[in-house]
Amino acid sequence: xxxxxxxxxxxxxxxxxxxxxxxxxxxxxxxxxxxxxxxxxxxxxxxxxxxxxxxxxxxxxxxxxxxxxxxxxxxxxxxxxxxxxxxxxxxxxxxxxxxxxxxxxxxxxxxxxxxxxxxxxxxxxxxxxxxxxxxxxxxxxxxxxxxxxxxxxxxxxxxxxxxxxxxxxxxxxxxxxxxxxxxxxxxxxxxxxxxxxxxxxxxxxxxxxxxxxxxxxxxxxxxxxxxxxxxxxxxxxxxxxxxxxxxxxxxxxxxxxxxxxxxxxxxxxxxxxxxxxxxxxxxxxxxxxxxxxxxxxxxxxxxxxxxxxxxxxxxxxxxxxxxxxxxxxxxxxxxxxxxxxxxxxxxxxxxxx
Length: 353
Known about the structure:
Helices cover 54% and strands 3% of the residues. By secondary structure, it is mainly α. The chain has one domain (5-75, 122-171, 181-352). The strands form three sheets. Strands 1-2 form a two-stranded antiparallel sheet. Strands 3-6 form a two-stranded parallel sheet. It has a two-stranded antiparallel sheet with strand order 4-5. Helix 3 packs antiparallel against helix 13 (322-352) and helix 9 crosses helix 13. The longest helix has 31 residues, at 322-352. The relative contact order is 0.18.
């Protein structure tokens, strides 16, 4: 995160406030929830402020897991090493290099199996698609009916984007040979099988949709969380806005590039996977801008972070700098957190009314 200092300051402020400053939950409870990321074993009776505090902590650490695994911070198992673990290296740089950004910004992010020419052509093709979409947007906007159809199509397709050790069900997956070995944490949890499930089953005709206009963070979630857990709303809002608007106007070796369209596609695709729709957004842009390997990476990091592999990280946007991919992970993390908060806070709002 130190590659993006503005965001890091905002992140640390909000995390410190959740864990250390005045709040509804006692300090030991906060840390327990943060470690276990579940409230099952807590007290039976929660006040609304305590519940909101717990929800914020859960959403924060669920999303943080995506960033940790997605950025290659977590060690992978290696049977040839005495302690069973090795540090993940991304493009031949170790974690210590990545953390300190040592000599990696100008290094080619092409793995041994990928050619520089191919990755350069991918970059140029992406920029060309961005330019074309911008021109089409200026010439003629899609109708509401068309945008609804495109969202439903993207939402259904997201159910078939599989990840981690389930990749075998995706025909001819580039990641079928990856071996996913996760740490044994079953001793610490009551239900080892508990985890992410798609918001709808494949084959269902009418998939549920959360219309963002009916319950937005800005107009609903922010005020509720701030009322029940003083000031955290301002800190979270600052963090969401910071990552959404963060830009250096660069794409790999190109400068003076408006990346707004790309950042919005990343953020909205995460929400789309959770069934959240923005009426004013054309989801056709997601399909144009996010290649299949990137969608697999996003689904894995967001929903099954422990299955993320180095090969997935290397597979998309191969000419982009490591700091730019960290920026992607920051966007995914905050979109994931906001999606979880929207569902939880909407449920609390309904309980109150």
